[in-house]
Here is the input.
Amino acid sequence: MILIIDGDAAAGASLERVLRYRGLKAIAVQNGMEALSLLDIRVPKAIVMDLHMTGMDGLIFLHAVRTSAKFAAVPIIVYTSVFADETRRSALQAGAQDFIVKGTVGWEALVERIRTAVGDLPEPPL
Here is the structure.
């Protein structure tokens, strides 16, 4: 399962549909608290997250996930409209595997980058 976190419900739902259409299990949530609740019960194969989410800053969420050994191997791709170099560096230093600015790659390229991040990893146990 690919966990998508995007404060824009329409954007998250669109990416969820694209991933499902391409054969990947995906679920979209709108904020970090929803995501953390979901992470309490399931370890995703990857997380695709925007830095803008309600209730929690994306970098704080990223740090919270990366400080847990349970999620150390989960690839995290930041997919955001923020394009500042400082933000990119901060996200990568906090543990993001990839940083993609929305609108700079098409759906196919994004799906390929997600597939590359996930690789042949089996579904993690609950």
The mean pLDDT is 90. Residues 9-21 form the longest helix (13 residues). The chain is about 45% helix and 15% strand. Residues 2-118 form a domain with the Rossmann fold fold (CATH 3.40.50.2300).
